[in-house]
Structure to design on (339 residues):
C-alpha cells in the first residue's frame, strides 16, 4: 500500500512498518546475509559482483537508450566514473538528472541506480548521470560529500560549454535549464539533500530545479527536536528491520567516521539565525522542490516524514511524498546488495 499523503497520526505512522504476508514470505525465502562487523569484507564481495552485473546490464539495455562511461577528475586521489544514460532519439532538448547510488557511504557503484535511470530515460526522455563518489573507510567523512559536490559542479559547468563532438560529455540535446534534478537512494539521497543546500549557498549555475530523495537519513538520532520526538518512532520500531537494520547502520557509520556536528552530516540540521528553539525551517528556504519516497520498514523512515513535514510548510519546496507500506519497492537497491 502506498500513501500519496504522508501518514500523520501515531497509528498511521506505525502501520507503515507492518509487512504484509507476501513480503514476509519473500523475506523468508530470500533471507539477507549476516553482516560482518568488518565492512571491508562485505565491500570486497560487492565489488567482486560488479563484472557480472555489468554483463547483465549490457545484455538487457533497451534499444532506445544509449549509455556511455566517462571519467571526471575530482582530485589527485580520486576520479569519478560516471554512466550517462539518454535516449538515442529525442523530440527536443532533455532535462538533466543526476542520481547518486546508495550503500551506506561505504559500498556500491553507479550501476545500483541504472534500472531507475533507464526507466526515467524511457518514460520521461531525460538525460541521467550516475556518478561514483569517494567511499569510506578509505575516504572518511566528508570525503564522499565533497567528491559528490565536485562532480555536480563539473556537470553543471560542462552542460554550459559549447558542444564538442570530439569530447562529448553531453549531447547537444541536454539542457539543464529545462530541468536540473539531483537525487539518489538511501545514502545517495542523503548526499543529494546536502548537495541541494550547497548548490543554493554557492549559487550553482545553472541552478537545481528539483530533488528526488528516496529513503535517506536526514536527522541525527541524538538531535531530534523536542517537538518532533513523539513522531520519531521508526528508529526503535524498525531497529531489527530486514534488509537494513541498525546493526548494519552502526557498522557503516563507524566506517564513515561522520562528524555529527558538521552541517554536511545531516541536511535537516541546517540552522538559521531566525529559527527559534527546535525550529529548522529557515535553514531550508530557497531549496528546489523535493519529492520524497519513504519506506515503512526503514529505521530512518521518520527522518523522511519529519523532514518532509518541516520543509512542506514552504509551498515552494514541497513537490510530493509517497510512503510505501513495508517498502518492498524502495528496498530494491538494497536487495541487489545481497543477491
Amino acid at each position: 500500500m502506498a500513501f500519496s499523503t504522508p501518514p500523520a497520526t501515531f497509528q498511521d505512522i506505525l502501520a507503515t512498518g507492518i509487512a504484509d504476508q507476501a513480503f514476509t514470505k519473500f523475506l523468508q525465502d530470500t533471507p539477507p546475509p549476516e553482516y560482518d562487523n568488518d565492512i571491508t569484507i562485505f565491500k570486497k564481495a560487492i565489488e567482486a559482483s560488479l563484472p557480472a552485473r555489468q554483463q547483465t546490464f549490457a545484455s538487457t539495455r533497451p534499444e532506445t537508450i544509449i549509455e556511455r562511461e566517462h571519467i571526471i577528475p575530482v582530485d589527485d586521489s580520486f576520479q569519478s566514473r560516471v554512466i550517462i544514460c539518454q535516449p538515442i532519439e529525442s523530440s527536443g532538448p532533455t532535462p538533466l538528472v543526476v542520481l547518486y547510488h546508495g550503500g551506506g557511504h561505504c559500498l556500491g557503484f553507479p550501476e545500483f541506480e541504472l534500472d531507475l535511470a533507464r526507466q526515467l530515460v524511457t518514460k520521461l526522455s531525460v538525460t541521467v548521470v550516475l556518478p561514483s563518489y569517494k567511499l569510506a573507510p578509505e575516504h572518511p567523512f566528508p570525503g564522499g560529500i565533497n567528491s559528490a559536490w565536485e562532480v555536480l559542479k563539473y556537470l553543471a559547468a560542462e552542460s554550459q560549454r559549447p558542444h564538442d563532438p570530439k569530447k562529448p560529455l553531453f549531447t547537444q540535446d541536454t539542457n539543464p535549464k529545462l530541468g536540473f534534478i539531483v537525487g539518489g537512494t538511501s545514502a545517495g539521497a542523503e548526499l543529494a539533500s546536502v548537495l541541494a543546500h550547497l548548490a543554493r549557498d554557492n549559487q550553482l549555475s545553472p541552478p537545481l530545479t528539483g530533488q528526488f530523495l528516496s529513503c535517506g537519513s536526514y536527522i541525527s538520532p541524538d538531535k531530534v527536536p523536542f517537538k518532533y520526538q513523539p513522531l520519531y518512532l521508526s528508529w526503535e520500531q524498525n531497529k531489527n528491520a530486514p534488509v537494513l537494520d541498525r546493526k548494519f547502520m552502526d557498522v557503516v557509520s563507524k566506517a564513515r567516521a561522520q562528524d555529527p556536528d558538521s552541517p554536511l552530516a545531516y541536511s535537516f540540521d541546517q540552522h538559521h539565525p531566525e529559527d527559534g528553539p527546535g525550529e529548522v525551517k529557515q535553514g531550508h528556504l530557497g531549496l528546489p522542490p523535493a519529492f520524497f519516497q519513504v519506506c515503512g520498514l526503514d529505521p530512518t523512515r521518520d527522518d523522511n516524514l519529519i523532514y518532509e513535514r518541516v520543509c512542506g510548510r514552504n509551498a515552494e519546496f514541497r513537490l510530493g511524498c509517497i510512503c510505501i507500506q513495508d517498502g518492498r519497492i524502495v528496498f530494491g537497491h538494497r536487495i541487489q546488495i545481497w543477491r
About this structure: The CA atoms of residues 165 and 171 lie 8 Å apart. The longest strand covers residues 65-75. The chain has one domain: 2-17+50-338.
